[in-house]
């Protein structure tokens, strides 16, 4: 047996392909999503000396377009006299009926034609499912035989198995492993195991695709983990990414299992949700750009001051808490991707997934806890919440909103105090002078966290009465903080918060005046702030006259 | 004076640093960066601004920025950078008050 892997850089356009030469047949596993890839496989098959009559058996680990679309127009794969397509029963129906949902053609914006499937695996109507040995006619007059059983690879795990035998004694085993899709299978050839997309089935933006099934996935993972525990598999060949050892595969599948357990009740990821998620990704990334620039800049500032004070070691330590270069590269890469995406009119899911990748890496690029001890923790926490909100949306979880009845004046006062009071007083810094460690900690926080409103004339006008509103307190506080940052950031000398109580609503006007820096582009409120206002349980409008900039938040009164 | 345009990001921050270092290398100790056409500055760009501030803090040195866009002004204000170097609303004001 000889195996030729075709390993691609990971993307959602096309899977890996594998070509295996057996004495009785040439096996292709997942010809991929691109015609050139399938064409290249056909060329390799044509170049195998002396094998022109061997049947080509094309297995699909599942019928998603990135695994099969490329073969649609490649003669070798659609020539029934030479080639046979083998897919699990549900996938076979999807291929023959051009089901754009099950194949993901709709969400990935691809067109499919009907493909004739030569062998449906695990078809309940077939006698082979009763354990009977059934002959399979192969192109060129050759035959094979298949027999199915419910097999227990290890304690507590059962997996539907099909054993396909060729005349020469070669054998292929297929295992039914639904979850990522209803038709997913794993394929064993000798000591190689082909597992399709099983390791990624719980990833954000993959979990929730049409046909995804959490319970089935958990069972399938149990079965394949038990199979790997038998120690008779050497290498595992995934649908995307490099070939891995059985040990590595075991770790990946165990991690997928942990992730999958937390995914109960996620929404289906269809074209509409992909579009919403992609739109949020762009709003979100604009804000992420700003937050990370501010966090890194704050830290560089602390480092600069500490170096000026002769504390080079501390400056260096502060520098290391955020990997600025990595963050910049990630954010720039997303921007470049986004520009290319819009220019090419690509489908939304690509952008949503790219944002998911970038955000997962951003989360690892800063030391949140240590950073929050030096720079304003509300900035660090907001960055963390924003990244988390995006990941949750991509995963398909409903937004985490906790509306409660609050006194609006108290909520606003808490935000204002947070933006006005330093993290520690001068007295506290001085009284810690005898303890070097404590002094340094307070000094860093003192330098790194300057109250937002310290150099601004600030007015808060509200009535004395309690103003009960139903809001998500955290989102609302974030909204007001972002608005105050906007005002202070553009140089407003005076910021006024004016609370007006109407019959059914409360209006909060936040107005900035003074010699503010004007934007060269037409200013409009960020989509992100509108989203945040909605999450908070309010609506947001704004106006910028040149003389002043005003944000108006409207909230329904409670009770 | 060095006029800067576009985005100061991971791709361009190095060019800005080179341009500034080139001037300093030629003996210029007073530098004004005109940011009129800059709409975005990344952490890498901020690092270049601070590195320049470190190089130009001797007697007789002067370092300032002018014509900041709202976006860049906001980042510099929120990071505390505005307390490190002087900024002017326009190139004209910068020269008038230099």
Structure notes:
The complex is a heterodimer of chains A (559) and B (98). Chain A is an alpha+beta fold and 559 residues long. Chain A has three domains: 2-261, 4-Layer Sandwich (Metallo-beta-lactamase, Chain A); 270-400, no CATH class; 403-412 and 453-559, Heat Shock Protein 90 (2-Layer Sandwich). Helix content of chain A is 41%, strand content 22%. Chain A contains 17 helices and 21 strands. In chain A, strand 18 (494-501) and strand 19 (505-513) form a beta hairpin. Chain A is elongated, with a radius of gyration of 30 Å. Chain B has a single domain (2-97), classed as STAS domain (Transcription Regulator spoIIAA, 2-Layer Sandwich), CATH 3.30.750. In chain B, 44% of the residues lie in helices and 28% in strands. Chain B is built from four helices and four strands; from the N terminus they run E-H-E-H-E-H-E-H. Chain B has a four-stranded parallel β-sheet. The longest helix of chain B is centred in the N-terminal third of the chain and has 13 residues, at 13-25. Chain B starts with a strand and ends with a helix. At the A-B interface, helix 7, helix 9 and helix 16 of A face strand 2, helix 2 and helix 3 of B.
Give me the secondary-structure topology.
The complex is a heterodimer of chains A (559) and B (98).
Chain A: E1 2-6, E2 17-21, E3 26-29, H1 35-47, E4 56-59, H2 65-68, H3 75-78, E5 83-88, H4 89-96, E6 119-121, E7 134-137, E8 143-154, E9 157-166, E10 171-176, E11 185-189, E12 192-196, H5 214-229, E13 235-238, E14 244-245, H6 246-261, H7 271-308, H8 312-319, H9 324-344, H10 348-363, H11 368-374, H12 377-395, E15 403-407, H13 408-420, H14 426-431, H15 436-448, E16 457-461, E17 468-472, H16 473-489, E18 494-501, E19 505-513, H17 527-536, E20 538-544, E21 548-556
Parallel strand pairs in A: 3-4, 4-5, 5-6, 12-13, 16-18
Antiparallel strand pairs in A: 1-2, 2-3, 7-8, 8-9, 9-10, 10-11, 11-12, 13-14, 15-17, 18-19, 19-21, 20-21
Chain B: E1 2-8, H1 13-25, E2 30-41, H2 43-55, E3 62-66, H3 70-79, E4 86-88, H4 91-97
Parallel strand pairs in B: 1-2, 2-3, 3-4
């Amino acid at each position: 047996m000889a195996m030729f892997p075709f390993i691609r850089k990971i993307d959602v356009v096309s899977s890996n392909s594998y070509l295996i030469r057996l004495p009785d047949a040439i096996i292709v596993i997942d010809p991929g999503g691109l015609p050139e890839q399938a064409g290249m496989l056909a060329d390799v098959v044509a170049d195998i000396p002396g094998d022109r009559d061997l049947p080509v058996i094309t297995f699909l680990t599942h019928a998603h377009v990135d695994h099969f679309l490329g073969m649609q127009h490649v003669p070798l794969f659609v020539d029934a006299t030479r080639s046979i397509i083998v897919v699990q029963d549900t996938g076979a129906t999807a291929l023959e009926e051009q089901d754009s949902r099950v194949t993901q053609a709709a969400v990935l914006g691809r067109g499919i034609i009907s493909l004739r499937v030569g062998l449906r695996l695990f078809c309940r109507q077939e006698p082979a499912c009763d354990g009977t040995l059934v002959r399979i006619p192969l192109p060129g007059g050759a035959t094979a035989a298949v027999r199915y059983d419910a097999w227990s690879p290890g304690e507590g795990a059962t997996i539907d198995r099909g054993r396909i035998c060729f005349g020469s004694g070669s054998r292929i085993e297929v295992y039914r492993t639904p979850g990522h899709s209803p038709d997913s299978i794993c394929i064993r050839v000798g000591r190689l195991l082909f597992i399709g997309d099983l390791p990624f089935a719980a990833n954000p933006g993959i979990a929730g695709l049409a046909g995804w099934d959490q319970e089935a996935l958990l069972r399938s993972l149990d079965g394949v983990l038990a199979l790997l525990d038998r120690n008779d598999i050497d290498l595992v060949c995934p649908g995307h990414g490099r070939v891995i050892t059985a040990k590595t595969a075991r770790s990946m599948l165990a991690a997928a299992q942990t992730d999958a357990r937390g995914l109960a009740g996620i929404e289906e990821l269809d074209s509409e949700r992909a579009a919403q998620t992609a739109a949020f990704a762009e709003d979100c990334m604009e804000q992420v750009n700003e937050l990370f620039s501010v966090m890194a800049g704050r830290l560089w500032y602390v480092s600069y001051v500490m170096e000026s004070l002769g504390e080079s070691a501390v400056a260096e330590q502060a520098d290391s808490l955020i990997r600025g270069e990595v963050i910049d590269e990630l954010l720039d890469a997303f921007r470049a991707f986004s520009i290319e995406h819009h220019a090419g009119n690509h489908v939304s899911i690509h952008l949503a997934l790219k944002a998911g990748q970038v955000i997962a890496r951003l989360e690892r690029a800063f030391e949140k806890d240590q950073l929050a001890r030096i720079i304003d923790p509300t900035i660090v926490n907001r960055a963390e919440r924003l990244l988390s909100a995006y990941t949750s949306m991509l995963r398909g979880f409903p937004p985490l909103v906790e509306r409660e009845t609050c006194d609006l004046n108290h909520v606003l006062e808490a935000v204002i105090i947070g933006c006005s009071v330093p993290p520690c007083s001068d007295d506290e810094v001085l009284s810690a002078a005898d303890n070097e460690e404590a002094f340094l900690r307070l000094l860093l926080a003192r330098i790194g966290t300057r109250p937002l409103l310290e150099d601004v004339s600030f007015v808060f006008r509200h009535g004395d009465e309690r103003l009960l509103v139903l809001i998500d307190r955290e989102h609302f506080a974030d909204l007001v903080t972002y608005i105050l940052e906007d005002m202070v950031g553009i140089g407003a000398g005076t910021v006024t918060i004016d609370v007006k109580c109407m019959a059914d609503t409360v209006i909060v006007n936040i107005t900035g005046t003074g010699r503010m820096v004007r934007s060269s582009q037409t200013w409009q409120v960020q989509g992100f702030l509108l989203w945040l206002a909605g999450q908070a349980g309010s609506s947001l409008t704004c106006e910028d006259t040149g003389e002043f900039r005003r944000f108006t938040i409207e909230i329904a009164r409670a009770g | 004076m060095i006029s800067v345009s576009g985005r100061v990001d991971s791709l361009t921050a190095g060019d800005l640093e080179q341009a500034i270092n080139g001037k300093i290398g030629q003996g210029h100790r007073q530098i004004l960066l005109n940011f009129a056409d800059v709409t975005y500055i990344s952490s890498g760009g901020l690092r270049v601004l601070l590195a320049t501030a470190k190089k130009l803090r001797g007697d007789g040195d002067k370092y300032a920025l002018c014509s900041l866009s709202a976006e860049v002004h906001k980042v510099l204000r929120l990071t505390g950078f505005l307390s490190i170097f002087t900024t002017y609303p326009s190139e004209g004001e910068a020269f008038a008050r230099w």
